[in-house]
């Protein structure tokens, strides 16, 4: 058997063995994430507190598919994927992380085969014979799959939209390559029809990518970059290439405008009005080359990169950034142009792909409170790693010595990436590890880090640490009303009601339309018995967000404490319709019904509570007193014993009373 025949038989095996090896390595690097928890950075808001995920009712599906239910922007496919997760596993974090990892594995598999398709197409377009394609695809895919910058996209549940849009994005690029091949084949046969089916599939995948995350808006420009790489301008006119992309560009423009106005209305675009357009241009230039640096040296990574402080003007490096960015782009363009046209096209493709996929998050128009974000590199790094792989190949073919050195260096580099990748998954373990890492990287800089750390400690009932972090956020002279609201809630729990109300007032001065602050202040008013003021605040909140589960349950509880039982029953009925899986809602409605004298209804609700939470000892006691109310002393005694066995502090006098009525000694 000669060597070419051996290669032909080996290649198909490698095309399946290597992607499996990549998948295993990804799972090893990311397996710690399966034990991670929800974080308080959007996970609770998008999933745990999202009423539309709780069932696949027609009303919920309609809201998910046709409305922005997040208050950020429109990504319905991502929300549906969360709903599927919730349907099968509720709020178990493991399943959400598992799906993110599996989609990332699929994306890496798509990239592997995309690289093979590109290399094969390049051979046909005059780039010369390219050997070891499977191994080149292995290196390029690994550099992408285990890159530490991509941990944020995979190990953050709320960034499901990143892995999902990339799946359709890469699938669309692969289908576009098939479309190019079919359309050129038809052209050679003098068939005027272009490959319509493949074209429509590419268009459909683009739409699916957009519906997963609006960042896919630059997809048609990635297709232009592929046209340059595959020399389509030598086959058909530039005019026809542009016309071919017209439907994509129209859809992209509509999506971009809709996303901009949606983000603007939610406040995301207005985060940094203090920065001029020139300063935003400097930030964009800085990001252009910093993402490239971190592609090769992914150190000092953070979940949050704050904007520079402006007390004494911007640091000098930002004024140099446009020139650095220009040099970073110009050097490879210059040397590739001087070497040969094929090399120049590869560089233009890579820089073009990187630039177009980065420009949408370049901070010229602010897309968030941080100057950079690791997740923004998820797709655009393909524009760096693919050309790099091609030029590494050109070095490796120069001799056996270069191959040995090259393989050794690349292996060590991938080991370096894998260790850093695993390390970053530890950072995303929970809210404490996440924000403590940001504070470590940027001490006394990031309000969100201190505020969210405070929220975490508040939930853990560590009130001293919560106070320290909220106070640190306030000392940074924040204009974020939520920080003052959180401090108000904390002081309310500490029963420092006067200070609590003062912080709520401060929060509402900064944002008089913050529905949550009205709800929280109403809780404090309720605690001091000012029920009229509490109800007034609830009415304010209701006008802003009438269908909030948090709002409705707090209104119901306030009416219950105020002994307005009819209103309490009415509001608990509404909140049960929103979230029928919460046993507490049935319990408190039962209490209101019991106090109103509706004993049968109360007992039905208490039983429903026990069906959902069978170990609820307090509910067992309430069933007992309901049976006692209707003189069913046998069942009253039975449930009193059950409550006592479940460690509920049943009054001894009550037990003695039941024993006496049953003549039990």
Overall SS class: mainly alpha
- The Cα radius of gyration reads 30 Å
Order of strands, widest sheet: 1-2
Average pLDDT figure = 89
Question: Can you offer a commentary on this structure?
Answer:
The chain has about 675 residues and is mostly helical. The chain contains 31 helices and two strands. It has helices at about 5-30, 45-50, 60-65, 75-90, 95-125, 135-145, 150-155, 160-190, 195-210, 220-230, 240-265, 275-295, 315-340, 340-360, 375-380, 380-395, 400-425, 430-440, 445-460, 465-475, 480-495, 495-510, 515-525, 530-545, 550-560, 565-580, 585-595, 600-610, 615-630, 635-645, 650-660; strands spanning about 305, 370. Helix 1 (about 5-30) runs antiparallel to helix 5 (about 95-125), helix 18 (about 430-440) runs antiparallel to helix 19 and helix 30 (about 635-645) packs antiparallel against helix 31 (about 650-660). The model has no long low-confidence stretch (mean pLDDT about 90).
Which tags fit this structure?
mainly alpha; elongated; 665 residues; two-stranded antiparallel ribbon; 31 helices
SSE layout and pairing:
Blueprint: H1 3-30, H2 43-48, H3 58-66, H4 76-89, H5 93-124, H6 133-145, H7 151-155, H8 160-188, H9 196-212, H10 219-229, H11 238-266, H12 277-296, E1 305-306, H13 316-339, H14 341-359, E2 370-372, H15 377-380, H16 382-396, H17 400-427, H18 431-441, H19 447-459, H20 463-475, H21 481-493, H22 497-510, H23 515-527, H24 531-544, H25 549-561, H26 565-578, H27 583-596, H28 599-612, H29 617-629, H30 633-645, H31 652-662
Antiparallel strand pairs: 1-2
């Amino acid at each position: 058997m000669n060597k070419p025949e051996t290669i032909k038989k080996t290649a198909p095996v490698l095309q399946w063995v290597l992607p499996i090896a990549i998948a295993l390595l990804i799972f090893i690097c990311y397996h710690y994430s399966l034990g991670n928890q929800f974080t308080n950075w959007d996970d609770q808001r998008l999933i745990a507190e999202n009423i539309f995920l709780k069932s696949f009712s027609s009303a919920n599906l309609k809201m998910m598919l046709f409305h922005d239910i997040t208050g950020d922007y429109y990504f319905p496919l991502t929300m549906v994927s969360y709903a599927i997760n919730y349907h099968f596993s509720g709020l178990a974090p493991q399943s959400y992380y598992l799906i993110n990892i599996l989609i990332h594995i699929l994306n890496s598999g798509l990239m592997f085969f995309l690289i093979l398709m590109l290399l094969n197409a390049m051979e046909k377009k005059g780039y010369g014979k390219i050997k070891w394609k499977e191994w080149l695809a292995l290196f390029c895919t690994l550099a992408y799959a285990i890159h530490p910058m991509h941990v944020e996209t995979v190990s953050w549940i709320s960034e499901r939209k990143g892995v999902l849009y990339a799946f359709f994005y890469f699938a669309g690029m692969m289908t576009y390559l098939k479309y190019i091949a079919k359309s050129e084949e038809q052209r050679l046969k003098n068939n005027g029809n272009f490959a319509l089916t493949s074209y429509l599939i590419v268009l459909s995948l683009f739409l699916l990518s957009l519906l997963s995350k609006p960042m896919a808006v630059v997809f048609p420009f990635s297709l232009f970059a592929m046209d340059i790489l595959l020399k389509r301008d030598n086959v058909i006119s530039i005019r026809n290439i542009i016309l071919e992309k017209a439907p994509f560009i129209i859809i992209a423009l509509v999506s971009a405008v809709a996303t901009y106005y949606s983000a603007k209305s939610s406040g995301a675009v207005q985060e940094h009005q203090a920065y001029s357009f020139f300063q935003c241009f400097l930030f964009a230039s800085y990001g252009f080359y910093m993402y490239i640096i971190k592609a090769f040296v992914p150190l000092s990574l953070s979940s949050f990169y704050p904007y520079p402080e402006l007390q004494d003007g911007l640091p000098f490096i930002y004024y140099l950034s446009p020139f650095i960015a220009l040099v970073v782009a110009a050097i490879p363009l210059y040397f590739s142009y001087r070497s040969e046209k094929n090399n120049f096209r590869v560089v233009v493709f890579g820089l073009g792909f990187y630039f177009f996929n980065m420009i949408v998050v370049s901070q010229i128009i602010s897309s968030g409170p941080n100057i950079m974000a690791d997740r923004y590199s998820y797709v655009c790094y393909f524009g760096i790693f693919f050309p790099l792989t091609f030029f590494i190949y050109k070095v490796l073919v120069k001799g056996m010595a270069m191959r040995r050195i090259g393989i050794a260096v690349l292996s060590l580099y991938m080991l370096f990436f894998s260790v850093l990748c695993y390390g970053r998954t530890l950072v995303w373990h929970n809210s404490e590890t996440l924000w403590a890492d940001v504070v470590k990287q940027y001490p006394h800089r990031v309000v969100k880090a201190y505020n969210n750390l405070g929220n975490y400690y508040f939930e853990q009932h560590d009130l001293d640490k919560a106070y320290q972090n909220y106070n640190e956020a306030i000392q940074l002279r924040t204009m974020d009303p939520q920080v003052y609201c959180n401090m108000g809630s904390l002081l309310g729990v500490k029963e420092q009601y006067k200070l609590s109300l003062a912080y709520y007032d401060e929060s509402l001065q900064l944002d008089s339309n913050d529905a949550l602050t009205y709800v929280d202040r109403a809780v404090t008013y309720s605690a001091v018995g000012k029920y009229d003021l509490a109800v007034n605040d609830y009415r304010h909140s209701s006008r802003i967000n009438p269908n909030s589960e948090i709002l409705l349950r707090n209104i119901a509880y306030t009416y219950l404490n105020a002994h307005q039982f009819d209103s309490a029953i009415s509001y608990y009925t509404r909140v049960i319709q929103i979230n029928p899986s919460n046993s507490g809602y049935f319990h408190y409605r039962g209490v209101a019904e019991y106090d109103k004298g509706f004993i049968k209804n109360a007992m039905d609700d208490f039983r429903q509570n026990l069906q959902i939470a069978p170990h609820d000892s307090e509910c067992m006691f309430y069933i007992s007193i309901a049976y006692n109310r209707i003189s069913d002393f046998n069942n009253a005694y039975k449930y009193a014993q059950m409550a006592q066995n479940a460690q509920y502090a049943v009054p001894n006098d009550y037990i003695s009373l039941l024993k006496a009525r049953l003549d039990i000694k």
